[in-house]
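Exercise: predict the structure of this protein bound to pyridoxal-5'-phosphate.
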Amino acid sequence: MTNRQLFLEHVAQTSEAPLALEIVRAEGMYLWDVSGKQYLDMIAGISVCNVGHSHPRVVTAVREQAEKYMHLMVYGEFVESPQVAYARQLSAQLPQSLNSVYFTNSGAEAIEGAMKLAKRYTGRREIVAFHHAYHGSTQGALSLIGDEYFRNAYRPLLPGITHLHYGASEDLQAITDRTACVVAETVQGEAGIVRPEPQWLQALAACCRETGTLLVLDEVQAGLGRTGSLWAFEPLGVVPDILVLGKALGGGMPLGAFIADKAVMSVLSHHPVLGHITTFGGHPVSCAAGLASFQTILEEKLPQSVPGKEKRFRQLLQHRHIKAVRSSGLLIAVEFESFEFNKQVIDRCIQKGLLTDWFLFAPACLRMAPPLIITEEEIRTACALLVGVLDEL
Ligand SMILES: Cc1ncc(COP(=O)(O)O)c(C=O)c1O
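Solution:
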């Protein structure tokens, strides 16, 4: 049996048509498959590899930490220096009120933690989320996501969740003094890149303040430079009570986090004690990798390079088959007439060595979310390949 056959036989599948590329090496902007074919990566492991694949600094950090120690103890019991150093660095780059970091293994777990923290801190049970939002696949996160097709097969889900229309001011009155938190993506990703009007987000934050509701911003996909600022909320004139991170946070290793003020976070330590725990959350090797990646993002000023790159993509992504391009930095959705057309484009791009993808709730849109290190030349190559495919159709 080939590795591909064994993969289909023994590795649990999430769709009937996995890409099933067999990659043997990845470096920077490129992946190579078992036949030696090279792929230019336009999805970065779905917004994970912001500093590119196997960045030497991240690889060194992983090696050095693995040689010192790997798992020692469940999260929060021992002083583990990679966690401490990373939490300190994150806090230093965040507003004063976001100073306490709870590390998790994934984005969905960070969302779960944020929901529990908000309920515990406010003593309330209701949660507000948004249509077309994506927050993860665990049952709590799934209860928040704004798509009935994905939710319905797994009912019963969490009670007390109301979905509002993202961007609709009239819906904000649903936030009341019974609402524990509002969970919103700072930029909706899986919806096909929907950016909020700053005024709307500010009105949302004001409603939260007036009703004593915590504002949870999910930047699992949008954070860490991808939208052109280190944090997507920065240019929008709001500061969340809880910030949720994941994906690029671990520099290619599994890591998520929810971050709040210490006064808020401290409720998790009592009544019940150990009421929110994780064995592997904040794994020392993940934190070491994440910190190396974070320092690279800062030192190489990657967020600052993003707006120019976004502009270049937008200039080059013009074709009669392209209905619209929506972007927030290097989170780009290229809209076609249908999912079927999009799928053909994605498949043909892969044949030509260009790796793209689609969006869960916007199936007619092609996803481009390359590592932030992408060069001008690579942007030209990627867009020329895509436009070449569109010319054939
Ligand atoms: C905005 C957002 N939140 C949460 C998640 C869930 O993260 P994870 O897949 O690490 O559980 C994702 C994953 O795509 C996401 O895009």
